[in-house]
């Protein structure tokens, strides 16, 4: 991946990625601040429209809300939106998967030549809101907010629907706030599903849980949430030996060195767990460690065609459904033989659950594990390279505004 920084983009700066067809270049590369490209085509129209017209432009790509109303277009009104001055943005594997085009057959994403501002996790300060004059906005100007957006976080400014945001708790830094939404919300939704499926008693408590990759970006939140919020009495995770201490400090009761031991070997017989959370895309590898009647949720594939949620709102074409079905078939067989129910989950970002996460941060139950902080948008390349190495310990964050500014 090649990254180039340009000086300015509409008086602001953003990391803009141009996906270049293979006949032009060996792979996707980034052009940062490529003004003409970015102005011509935005993935969602957000930054461009938002910067120039903070209100209706955000939802209507340059047209104020009144424009649609006058034309009687029948479109729903734009969602309440804010402009955020970005202080920090965190990276997630989905960012480079999107850039590479690996997800484009499945999800509406950038076309081959479309520039894209990457980054979903954002933390910053509200500088404008779309609320009508006199109305009280959910997040007034000056509020510190964080959230998991559709994209565009690696920028100086981004427009964001209020529904995806929550207030950053007092005392929580922008870096910690940016590191949290996508990973914490994903594992929260997974844990809730597992508790629903195999939780015991009126509180649906999970008696035991196996989490793969407990020291990674999502795994580090999974261990903390499972132990300190869901109160799982027996929490096991697969990590390499060097990361066992980190996993233990995050709440793991037992660690399995995935480089030297299989889950089946470490957790066979009566050592099996009631539920498992697959964060590396190896559900069959976890099945031997789960009791018959137990459940597994996976977030790293394969994905069941009926469980794409809002990621494929119009449904998938038949050939993609068949492709997903074919990818799931071996897991279906292995899970059926093991007597374990398995499902896949794609995050549905929302500010409501993020507010719950914020409360747990305030209470000290969750503290993001930070792998590294990269200073300035110009350091985005280094941040991506670190992420794509696949060995991060916790989250990788780009600090857009220097601390204290
Ligand atoms: N479905 C969704 O909505 C959703 C949401 C978030 C993430 N995801 C997906 O979940 C996956 C994990 O995301 P992430 O942010 O946690 O990635 P990450 O932070 O980059 O994961 C890196 C960690 O994975 C560990 N690891 C690698 N292979 C492993 C294995 N076989 N067993 C145990 N640990 C292993 C590495 O440990 P070592 O250095 O010791 O190898 C490293 O600590 C990605 O594929 C991502 O796209 C999906």
UniProtKB/TrEMBL annotation:
Superkingdom of source: Eukaryota
InterPro entries (UniProt xref): ADH-like_N, ER, GroES-like_sf, NAD(P)-bd_dom_sf, YIM1/Zinc_Alcohol_DH_Fams
Domain Enoyl reductase (ER) residue range list: 62-398
Coiled coil location: none
Stretches with biased composition (Basic residues): 51-73
SUPFAM superfamilies in the record: GroES-like, NAD(P)-binding Rossmann-fold domains
GO molecular function: oxidoreductase activity
Region (Disordered): 51-80
Xref: Gene3D superfamilies: Medium-chain alcohol dehydrogenases, catalytic domain (3.90.180.10), NAD(P)-binding Rossmann-like Domain (3.40.50.720)
GO cellular component: mitochondrion
Protein name: Enoyl reductase (ER) domain-containing protein
């Amino acid at each position: 991946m090649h990254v180039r920084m340009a000086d300015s983009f509409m008086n602001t700066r953003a990391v803009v990625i141009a996906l270049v067809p293979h006949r032009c270049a060996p792979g996707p590369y980034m052009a940062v601040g490529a003004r003409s490209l970015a102005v011509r085509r935005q993935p969602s129209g957000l930054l461009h429209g938002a910067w120039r017209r903070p209100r209706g432009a955000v939802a209507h790509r340059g047209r104020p809300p009144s424009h649609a109303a006058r034309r009687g277009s029948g479109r729903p009104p734009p969602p309440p939106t804010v402009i955020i001055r970005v202080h920090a943005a965190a990276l997630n594997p989905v960012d480079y998967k999107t850039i590479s085009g690996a997800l484009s057959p499945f999800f509406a994403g950038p076309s081959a030549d479309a520039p894209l501002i990457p980054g979903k996790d954002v933390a910053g300060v509200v500088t404008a809101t779309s609320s009508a004059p006199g109305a009280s906005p959910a997040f007034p100007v000056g509020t510190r907010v964080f959230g998991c957006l559709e994209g565009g976080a690696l920028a100086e400014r981004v427009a964001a629907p209020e529904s995806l945001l929550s207030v950053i708790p007092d005392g929580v830094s922008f870096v910690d706030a940016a590191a949290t939404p996508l990973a914490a919300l994903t594992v929260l939704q997974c844990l809730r599903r597992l508790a629903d499926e195999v939780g015991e008693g009126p509180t649906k408590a999970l008696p035991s849980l196996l989490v793969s990759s407990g020291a990674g970006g999502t795994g580090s939140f999974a261990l903390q949430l499972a132990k300190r919020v869901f109160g799982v009495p027996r929490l096991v995770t697969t990590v390499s030996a060097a990361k066992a201490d980190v996993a233990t400090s995050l709440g793991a009761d037992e660690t399995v060195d995935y480089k030297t031991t299989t889950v089946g070997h470490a957790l066979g017989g009566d050592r099996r767990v009631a539920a498992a959370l697959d964060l590396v895309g190896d559900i069959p590898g976890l099945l031997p460690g789960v009791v018959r009647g137990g459940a597994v949720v996976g977030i790293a594939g394969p994905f069941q065609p009926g469980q794409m949620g809002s990621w494929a709102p119009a449904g998938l074409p038949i050939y993609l459904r068949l492709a997903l079905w074919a990818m799931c078939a071996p897991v279906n067989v292995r899970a059926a033989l093991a007597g374990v129910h398995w499902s896949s989950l794609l995050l549905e970002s929302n500010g409501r659950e993020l507010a719950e996460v914020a409360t747990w941060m305030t209470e000290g139950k969750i503290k993001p594990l930070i792998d590294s902080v990269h200073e300035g948008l110009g350091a985005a390349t280094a941040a991506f390279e670190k992420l794509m190495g696949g060995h991060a310990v916790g989250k990788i964050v780009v600090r857009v505004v220097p601390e204290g500014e």
